[in-house]
Amino acid sequence: xxxxxxxxxxxxxxxxxxxxxxxxDAIETGAWPAGQALPSERDLAAALGLSRMTVRRxxxxxxxxxxxEQRRGSGTYVRSRRLEQTVDRVVGFTDEARLLGFQPGSxxxxxxxxxxxxxxAAALGCTEGTTVRRxxxxxxxxxxxxxxxxxxxxxxxxxxxxxxxxxxxxxxAAVEALFGVAPQRARQTITARLPSRSERRLLEIGxxxxxxxxxxxxxDADDAPFEYVRSAYRGDRxxxxxxxxxxxxx
Length: 250
Known about the structure:
Layout (H helix, E strand, L loop, with lengths): L14 H14 L12 H8 L3 H13 L3 E4 L3 E4 L4 E4 L6 H7 L4 E12 L2 H7 L6 E11 L2 E10 L8 H7 L2 H9 L5 E9 L3 H7 L7 E9 L5 E10 L3 E4 L9
Parallel strand pairs: 3-10
Antiparallel strand pairs: 1-2, 4-5, 5-6, 6-9, 7-8, 8-9
Helix pairs in contact: 1-3, 2-3
């Protein structure tokens, strides 16, 4: 490593910034993939002939860049890339992840028929207590947990089962194939909050790691609601981008 990462102390650029540049290059080129543990400060200092304070300052800069995370008692690890959703179209998680270059995945937690509580009934336009389909899943990107999603489908879609989700991979693809319904528009709200105990366990995050809580009602071509979704996304791996345009001038 010392031969591959020369640090020239005669340059005006401080040694810790030279090391910072090498670390960033290793991460951004994929030489150190997501989840990779960085060498310890002691080992890297010895390999490069630097002080531990110099290595520590370089590590601190990479942490500020958001490229690595420090885990108490464990070490410093390369962070997974962030998935950035552009809020200008109705796209399901599977298609959104693929468009952004991630490998989408899903772990089914539950698929059941349940009585619609008041909030669900209001969103789907049915009577409270009406039987609806509930689907809870952990959504993953490149194998790492990203979101916990619970979707409710309107009463006419009770026929959708776990085999359909496995076959089509995408809920929207399954709904379109089975019921001829495709999403046309959606209303989505977003709030930031701390995770619940179950969210911490399923998303593998800490007690004080924030999540982005999303609620969405999706409408079909007749402008009738067919899906209501509650999601909790990891705040360190997910962001939303708004595509804003200037108003048309009359």
